[in-house]
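Here is my example:
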Amino acid sequence: MKIGILSQNASLYSTSRLVTAAEQRGHQVMVVDPLLCYMDITSHRPSVYYRSRKLDAFDAIIPRIGASVTFYATAVLRQFEMMGVYSLNESVAISRSRDKLRALQLLARKGIGMPVSGFAHSTKMSEELIKLVGGAPLVIKLLEGTQGKGVVLAETQQAAESVIDAFRDLDEYFLVQEFIKEAEGADIRCFVVGGKVVASMMRKAKSGDFRSNLHRGGTASQVKLTPEERKAATRAADAMGLSVAGVDILRSNHGPLVIEVNSSPGLEGIEKSTEKDVAAIVIEYIERHYQPKNPNNNKTKGKG
């Protein structure tokens, strides 16, 4: 097959591993920066150009789309879908998972366990919002934050009100969530491929922090999942309509709680901590599910 990888940086670990895994299995691979693409959206002849070259030979696309370029990159991916190219994760599924509020609403609709979460527009509702999630300590998250950025632990009522007021002054949208103390600064990343958890790791926050992101100094180790955790992870990925997803789970006193579903999960931490060739598993999934181009028979996975 001819496989395109939508990525802004070919040297990133995840991108380079996918290239290597695909080439080792006999496929031709090209890394395409979506921001350097432009499109002819004519209904009868949809096409994508990259550095003045028309891209019309791909059989499959692997989207590795950064959060900051979601809008344009998903438009490029949608154009490939219109051309009948198989996408590992479809554009609509990526868009819904990137909208944190929408994603939580979809998870809630499916009855998937999550921390108690609140959302409001008016600062006049700050006190009620804090009460809604059980009071301080609580977590405040910017809707646009990634990799632990824009996530604040407010340990007191006064601190929570101050952070909420500050975010409101910046005209930022945010979520307020209960703080799961018993998680002790750790979460579990479940790597889901085709409705199955193929690898998992526990991420532990560095001393003095509650955010377990590896980019923020957290550490990773292999972990054995419970059946409930596996089910929560696969149901969360399915709720977003994602074939490949990184589902983050907290262990709480009342069962596993999903806190995020990532449509472009990194490979470095999960491969190094589990010693599994996750990149090859992803390529194998594409091989099993790829179908010849048929632009008039595209189906969108998931709802909402």
About this structure: The first strand starts at residue 2 and ends at 6.
